[in-house]
Amino acid sequence: MAFHNYHAYLGIWSALSKNGNGTGDLSSRPKGYAMLNDNTTITAPWIEQENGNMTRLYEEYGHIIINVSLAMPHAGVVGAAMDPVNKIMQPEDLDGQGLYRIRASVPSPVVHVLCAMLGEEDLGPYVLRENSTTNETDLPPPYDLSDPYLGGTPLDEVFGWGPMYGDYKWPPVFPKLPVGYNTIINDTLHIPYGRDAIYLLGNSTLEKTPGAFHSDPPVDTFVYPLCKITVNQTPYCSTWYNASNTGATMEAVCEDESDGLAYIASLQNATSGNFSLSREWPNIAGEWIKSSFIAVCVSGRSFD
């Protein structure tokens, strides 16, 4: 089902792009899409869009940086709607003629993806290299593999690495560069409980970059997206659920100041932001990624 959702969403985005309607404006991009139990259509909006200004991020850090957040409706609303204890008549109870709508003041889970587009020379601190002197794999100086913070790296401020950002805010280290059009992960192996992120390193298509001089032809350069994926919850949403005999829809409605049912209106001191980051997420996501072959190229095999 996850693959079906992913394929369907990319199909929607691809059609818009081919028709000339693609945009870098998150508010105009297709919302997230999924199916639940094969009969409920999920709609997930982009939120915290002010954090994703690519022009500002490039000017600040000198890299193309993508920072997006997608809020999901609270899946527990479906269970509550069908629980007999709540005595909500279902459409089938009325010979298929019934329907109902629920607006729930509940928080929404949020997936955050932060990616920096890097060249191979930028990946020195994060990818092991074979040491020709000792025949062991290590990081190039001045980075110290015995220090989980690697002594500080150029991307610490971008990704929030270092002791000043909290416990276990360690930069990832990958065993190798991924082969073309593939990804590898750095998840939770040998890491104490408490980390809140997993990391993906990809190998994307060749990009034409300018030569050393204006008269030189463009040079083919591999671009490696390094991505941090975290999950938390936001109280600035409510969940809308509509059910009928022909199917159901569920949507997160977020960051709408007129929404009196946003969870923050019900609980004004609700936990949010970094304080609600899930420490269980890396364990779940690591297993999901490994089971879906996203990280298989670490074994040297390529799935193009």
Features:
alpha+beta, 304 residues, globular, 5-stranded mixed sheet, 15 strands
Helix content range: 10-25%
**Into which percentage range does the β-strand content fall?**
25-35%
Shape: globular
H/E element sequence = HEEEHEHEEEEHEEEEEEEHH
SS class: alpha+beta
Strand order of the largest sheet: 3-4-6-13-10-9
The N- to C-terminal Cα distance equals 21 Å
Number of helices: 6
Tally of individual domains: 1
Question: Which stretches are low in confidence, meaning pLDDT under 50 for 5 or more residues running?
Answer: none
Q: What gyration radius follows from the Cα positions, in whole Å?
A: 22 Å
Number of strands: 15
Major sheet details: 6 strands, antiparallel
Return the average pLDDT rounded to an integer: 85
